[in-house]
Amino acid sequence: MPDVGKKSAEPKRDVVGEVIDSVADLLQTATDWVRQEAESVVREKIVLPIQKLGLTIASASAAGCLAVVGLIFIAVGLFLLLAQWLTYPGALLAIGGVYLLGALVFIVIKVRMMQK
């Protein structure tokens, strides 16, 4: 009869082992799901906006650089045109005067905004 008791104890261990294995599988599945969802959220909420921001900054930088180069060529062309009409010193004086007037306009606007 002692053999019968041992046999009945072994199936209980197998049932307990199956339950433990099932719980472990459930926990592993839940862990995998949470990891997958977290990865998806990070990709959607962090990685993609940063990529878009990087592309926007790169595009804006390229556009800004091209605009500056274009403005430099236009400025040189206008300077040469003014130099034909006013001579080189006269062209430099005219351009400097325009810059000073622009600075004066910005100063006046800033002072008026500070007074309000």
Coarse morphology = rod-shaped
The succession of helices and strands, N to C, reads H
Q: Kindly state the mean pLDDT as a whole number?
A: 89
Radius of gyration using CA atoms only: 39 Å
Number of contiguous helices:
1
Q: How is the main sheet built?
A: none
**Low-pLDDT regions:** none
User: Helix share of residues?
Assistant: over 70%
Which structural class do you get from the secondary structure elements? Answer: mainly alpha
- The overall strand count is 0
Beta-strand share of residues: under 5%
Give the termini distance in whole angstroms.
103 Å
Task: List the defining traits of the structure above.
116 residues; mainly alpha; 1 helix; 0% strand; rod-shaped
Quickly describe the structure:
With 116 residues, this protein is mostly helical.
Question: Any overview of this molecule?
Answer:
- The protein has one helix at residues 2-115.
- The chain is an all-alpha fold and 116 residues long.
Q: Mind sketching the topology for me?
A:
Layout: H1 2-115
